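quick one before i forget lol
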Amino acid sequence: MAFLLLLHEKLRLQRKINKLTLRQLRASNSKERITKNISRVQKMYASRQTALQAQAKMMQSQATVAFQNMYGLGVNSFNPMNFTGMNGFVMNFIGSALLNNGQGIQLGDKQIPAFSQDQINGMMNDYMTTGGTFKDKDGKFVNEYTEDQVNAFLYAMRQGQMMQQQAQMMSQQMSQQYQSNISIWLQAQEAALEEEQDAALAPLEMQETEMDLERESCEAQLADARARLESIKQACSEGIKDSAPTFGLG
């Protein structure tokens, strides 16, 4: 009778071990799927964060260009092959100053007649071709410019350069202020994105924890069941020996 009970317990433990092994396998497979889902979610939010950073950088660059254009300091205002220091901003200022709405130009105690647009264009060209001297190889003013005309042009150019420096400072200040605002915006966007990611990961991480606990529980129960099964097998083996007929021997 005792042997039959042992045999029944042996079969019960074997079935339990099989069920626990299956549960453990299912938990491992579920854990693998959940881990992959977590990885996909993390990659998606990492990609969105990278896109946010790229957007912030692009916005800063666009704002810098916009401020430069607003102050007449855009890329088209400067010719890198012009070594005289003349650029679009200064040229526009000179043109406006020398035209002076057709009125004369006061330079010190002298009243100089207003320039025509053709005169201004010619002086712009001669300034660059003569290296800023307006003189030929003999030291004479080209195109019969008067000293007053040259002085008026150079004075307007210096004023234009001073205005350009002020415009550059204003453009840089506005660009820096905008970059500071964009940094604040980016931090807020990243914080919101992190919060959204945490909310998306929370149920997955909970499921992952549950699968870990399930696997650990199965492992503990399997260890106990296997130890008990081994003991039952030992007892059954000894029971078989005890019940074997001796045929008058022993």
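fyi Helices lie at 2-70, 88-99, 117-129, 147-243.
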